[in-house]
Amino acid sequence: MSPPPIDRLVTLTRDLIVIPSTESRPEERARCFTLLRNHLEALGGITIRDFSSEGFASMTVMPQGIDTPDILLVAHLDVIEHPHPDAYTSRVTEGRIYGPGSGDMKGQAAIMLELFCDLQRRHPGLSFGLAYTSDEERGGENGVRHLFEDIGLRCGLAIVPDGGSIHDVTVAEKGILHVNLSTVGRESHAARPWLAPNALTALMRGVLRVSDHFEALKESGLNDHWYPTCVPTILNTPNQTINCIPGEATACLDLRFPPPHTRESLLATIRELA
Q1: N or C: which end of the chain has fewer CB within 10 A?
Q2: 38-42: which pairs have CB atoms within 8 A and are 24 or more residues apart?
Q3: 106-116 residue pLDDT tens
Q4: SS3 134
Q5: Which pLDDT does position 166 carry in this prediction?
Q6: CATH topology for the 5-159 domain
Q7: What is the C-alpha separation between 209 and 239, in angstroms, rounded?
Q8: From 3.30.70.360, 3.40.50.620, 3.40.50.880, 2.40.50.100, which CATH number describes the 175-273 domain?
């Protein structure tokens, strides 16, 4: 007698979580696909197809004879990099699964597989398919874009259960813009700051101006956060000497924006402010 669905879902989700399927670990990303394939191959009457673009794998699962399903569920198996290798563990606390990718989106990937298998057993040949990719965290160029634009995958309706909420259906998404800022000053001794412009100080002031501008765009009372955001994520300088004024500095900004904002309009704003 097979275990109940909830137990299978928890086990598969936790098995996926402990695999550090990051951009820098192609062999671990491959392990995720192998794990899913092992669960699917016991199901008859389906076709599993593997694809690859620039070293990033994708997989589609369809009932035999169906290339364009009425409904296609789409998930990614990659997760972000964590600085500590022991971060890739999972635990269950008060009915919730915790671990890297549990909600983004290995839990959803497991649910999709369980749903597909259950529907195919009860309704063989149902026009319902799956697509798994492994490069969403870096933009999706070699995953979803590759499948739909290069391979020609089509469907009646694609559902991506990665909207950030378990209670709402998301029908649109923000655009993404990653911006690198850099400043150049002059190296000098920190005991005499009046002798040289500090690249790091100038950069920090620019980042704050940009951040304050986008913070002012926040619309109070909106739970959907449907406004532009700008988050500084990396601040760096090649200087490694504590008493040296840095001559160069760089920063990375992560921007998310809804219409009517565009990449061009945001870049123009950042250039003006920074």
Answers
A1: N
A2: 39/12, 39/113, 39/117, 40/113, 40/116, 40/117
A3: 999 999 999 99
A4: coil
A5: 73
A6: Aminopeptidase (3.40.630)
A7: 24
A8: 3.30.70.360
